[in-house]
Amino acid sequence: MVDRRIVWTSLGGLACIVAACTSPPVPSEPAPAPTHGAAGIGDEYYPEAGNGGYDVDRYELDVRYDPERGQLTGEATVTARATQRLSRFNLDLRGFTVSSVEVDGAIADFAREDSSELVVTPPEPLDEGSVFATRVRYEGKPVAAKAGQLGGNGWYRSPSGGAFVFGEPQSASFWYPVNEHPRDKAAFSLTATVPKGWTAVSIGKSGKSTTKEGWTTTNWTEPDPVASYLTVFAVDRFDVETGELADGTPVRNVFAPGADDARDEAARTAEIVEYLESRFGDYPASTAGGIYLDSATGFALETQGTPTYPSGPDVDLLVHEIAHQWYGNSVSVHSWADICLNECFASYATWLWAEDKHGADLDSFYRERVEMMPADLWAEPLYDMGAGNEFGAVYVKGPLAVHALRMRIGDESFDELLRRWPAEHENGNASWEEFEDFAERVSGQDLDEFFKAWFRDTERPADEHLHPARPSR
Ligand code: TRP
Ligand code: ZN
User: Cβ(167) to ligand 1 under 6 A?
Assistant: First the structure.
């Protein structure tokens, strides 16, 4: 139900704009009693991920990391808008000792709860709609990554003594206080300081480095909204190569010692971006390139504008991670149950690449793969697969399902869908259910049975869905 008081005050505000604030103020009821912001944003899979009661506008981080001591010192300023009248609110942070929290410059009380909640109580309640800045000072030895379903989430050490932190669905809370859910995307900037001789890298555009008293500082700025798991921090004795895409977008390829075998693949970044632009529309990220590690994380992560790669990446892996810049990064999931929007499409991008660059016959490739599918993969749903199981079927069954959709709606509708989806949700969020509606609109077909068979059911789809006849044009 609509809260009358909210309607009343917002109408009051509107009246003030229209009358140029000359009319007497509309009498308003007293502000509602302040309440606690929820400890989670409302994702069923991860009830404690993210928080309620506010929406972050930007993160401004100042992080100093010494790889020799494995010690991090951070100061984070989180600027947010209250979405309710707040008596207190949470940020997500794992490990570290918090030394102080200020809200709009005033000392705030804080407490740590469970493994990831930093509970902040400002001296005065925050009004709904107000913008407030929370500054957190923290330090300590970061929490090492534990195995996730794919790569581990948290901090890794590199063979050359460096360190990096990444992961999905959670990683940002391992290095800064954050509203850790893709539903709350925000701008991001970082001032990173490491001992001279080391290089810190992150996402976004980087400024010049300066060295003072044995420490080197570099600024990183990502103006586009970014889901927090797509931020990364890596420190190593990197070799940095810079360039530009044809339109001036900065390209930064960063190689860890021992990652030289990735140079040939990295050199194809512009070619891959251009190819994917021909299928998905304009490249949405503010930078391009990659962080090439010499680590056996086993997995890459599509960190925004600058994916992070394990040792020995092949071109298909670059195509996959760069495709995520549209599918996953610019358009982010609403809930983790929607992960197929990221992985099914990024995985299908390598099919498109094979078709257009190498003349692959995708229909016959598809038929072979369908016959090779093990029963336990048919049993995995692509939508709402359950917490901790997000990555079970999306890489293998996912691209098959996308190809089946293409056959079902025909190439013309499918090509339109591939470009329109990222354009319509640019820098936003969307859910799987929205995608189903969208595909029906674009194709003009009723796809309920098709989507049920491929994305929700837990068995091999019936032949009519497995081998749909392409529409005649
Ligand atoms: N999204 C990554 C990809 O498809 C895979 C991934 C999932 C991952 N969870 C991770 C990578 C944790 C590193 C750590 O490329
Ligand atoms: Zn992926």
Answer: yes
Question: How many other C-beta atoms lie within 10 A of the C-beta of residue 349?
Answer: 26
Q: Whose CA is nearest to atom 2 of ligand 1?
A: 301
Please name which ligand lies nearest the alpha carbon of 299.
1
Could you tell me the pTM of the whole model? 0.93
> Is the Cβ atom of 182 under 6 angstroms away from ligand 1?
no
138 CB within 6 A, ligand 1: no
d(CA 168, CA 390): 10
How many angstroms does the Cα of residue 167 sit away from the middle of ligand 1? 6
Taking each continuous run of H as one helix and of E as one strand, the counts in the chain are 12, 23
CA 212/CA 50 separation, integer angstroms: 37
The preferred substitution site among 301, 309, 319, 348 for testing ligand 1, maximizing ligand atoms within 8 Å of CB, is: 301
Question: Per-residue confidence of the chain (473 residues) as pLDDT tens digits?
Answer: 333 333 333 333 333 333 334 455 666 677 889 999 999 999 999 999 999 999 999 999 999 999 999 999 999 999 999 999 999 999 999 999 999 999 999 999 999 999 999 999 999 999 999 999 999 999 999 999 998 888 899 999 999 999 999 999 999 999 999 999 999 999 999 999 999 999 999 999 999 999 999 999 999 999 999 999 999 999 999 999 999 999 999 999 999 999 999 999 999 999 999 999 999 999 999 999 999 999 988 899 999 999 999 999 999 999 999 999 999 999 999 999 999 999 999 999 999 999 999 999 999 999 999 999 999 999 999 999 999 999 999 999 999 999 999 999 999 999 999 999 999 999 999 999 999 999 999 999 999 999 999 999 999 999 999 999 999 86
Mutate to test the pocket of ligand 1, among 150, 153, 338 (most ligand atoms within 8 A of CB): 150
Helical spans, DSSP H, in 330-446 = 340-358, 362-372, 375-378, 397-409, 411-424, 432-443
**E strand spans, 293-390:** 308-309, 331-333
Tokens of 317: 């892996």
